[in-house]
Amino acid sequence: MRSDIAKRSEEKDLIRKLEGIIEVLLLTVLYFYIWKNEYSVMYVRTFYGRGRILLMGIYFIIMYVIMRLTEGLRFGNLKIFDIVVSQWISVLVTNFITFWQICLILNVMSDPRPMLRLTLYDLIITVALPFFFTWLYHLTYVPRNMVLIYGKRAALNLRFKILERPDKYAITTTISSSEPIESIKEQIMRHDAVIINDVPAEIRNDILKFCYEHDVRTYIVPKISDVIIGGASNINLFDTPLLLVRGTGLSIGQKFLKRTLDIILSALALVALSPVFLVVSILIRSDDGGSILFRQKRVTRDGKLFTIYKFRSMREDAEKDGAQFTIDDDPRITKVGRGLRRFRLDELPQLINILKGDMSIVGPRPERIENYEMYESEIPEFKYRTKVKAGLTGYAQVYGKYNTTAYDKLRLDLMYIENYSIILDIKLVLMTFRTLFQKERTEGFSDNKGNNFPDDMSGGDSE
């Protein structure tokens, strides 16, 4: 029975991969049509035979890789809106690159209209096919019958998060890890999958081995130590396997490459976005006549302080009564500020911080001093986030929410630090564009959120 469930799961994963390949192939065929009937005819007939195959192959690879980086092919796993936005980002980036590739091949500034038509066709396809593939997924997929095994009562909060995806998961039973192990095993065998959250290490190990032995799909909420071990290197010098945890953050080479990219990309972005800076500045000044920029001390790598720059989105007297939570529909947010926050435009001046070297494009979000001290006093591991520079965007910003707890954001940020790569940076930058269209990423705190440690208590112009 268990092997049948695992086999069906593998078959579904294979079908998802094939659907992704089919969609990218269709987009590549459209590009081939545009190239053959418009660009080759318009300029010079070239790239026949193998050359044409190579050209289409490059387009396919670029589109497929960017689709994977933005998670645009996870039909059924993500919400349909997120998939469509991810695919639109992939289409725009791929076709932008391809247009300049065509200009280089033809050695002329080509007419952009055929590529714009191609982009329009692509955008239509990337709405229709994700809907169709997601429909197929839910037609054949039954939500998993899951049991949640928890330690402390607070771990039960995970159930409410999972209830947001009833199309994919169904927690039908919860059981405390303090129950007899035989009772826990009995519940496991009655369900298709298990979630383990905040369970003591010895009991967790017994449960995990039992699930592994009986082919039970198991989801584990990682502890901080699990995240650190996840980034360890294998050492195979002896007949006993070793895992090496360096604990030094990024290597010298990684820091150099990351800093080089930060300088180049932030400089280019500042030039390209200068008209946006001008318009936003005029809007802020005309709204209430106050200052354009908001400045505040924040914490970056090794606990160093720096002055962060943001477009002001709250009244200038927002903190006259002291630091406060930023809540939904906060009356301190100005009319212009609400729009800036909605599309994260208030963050743009941090490109100056990046160019100066205070921040990086990707990294943990910088906390204000009092928040950092509060979180560290409650969560000693919170200082691990400062092994790298603070960032404009990051793992927690892409996969978390505005009101995700400090402990969960710590785990997400450590996953970034321990698994760092340039490819991961590129992925997070691309996926940041998707978060601009997700309202829950920018919502404030409310009484029913249940967060012990909100990301921001700062009130005026905070994250």
What does this structure look like?
It is a single chain. The chain has 463 residues and is of the alpha/beta class. It is 53% helix and 11% strand. It contains 16 helices and 10 strands. It has helices at residues 2-42, 50-69, 80-106, 113-140, 157-162, 181-189, 201-213, 224-230, 252-272, 274-288, 335-342, 350-356, 369-378, 395-399, 406-418, 422-435, and strands at 144-150, 169-176, 193-197, 217-220, 233-235, 242-244, 293-299, 305-311, 360-362, 391-393. Strands 2-1-3-4 form a 4-stranded parallel beta sheet. Strands 5-6 form a two-stranded antiparallel sheet. It has a two-stranded antiparallel ribbon with strand order 7-8. The longest helix is centred in the first third of the chain and has 41 residues, at 2-42. The chain is globular.
Secondary-structure content class? alpha/beta
User: Which oligomerization state do the chains in this entry correspond to?
Assistant: single chain
Order of helices and strands: HHHHEHEHEHEHEEHHEEHHEHEHHH
Detail the poorly predicted runs: 445-463
How much of the polypeptide forms β-strand, as a percent range?
Answer: 5-15%
Overall geometric form:
globular
| Largest sheet entry | 4 strands, parallel
What is the distance, rounded to the nearest whole angstrom, between the alpha carbons of the first and last residues?
A: 48 Å
What is the averaged pLDDT score? 86
How many helical stretches? Answer: 16
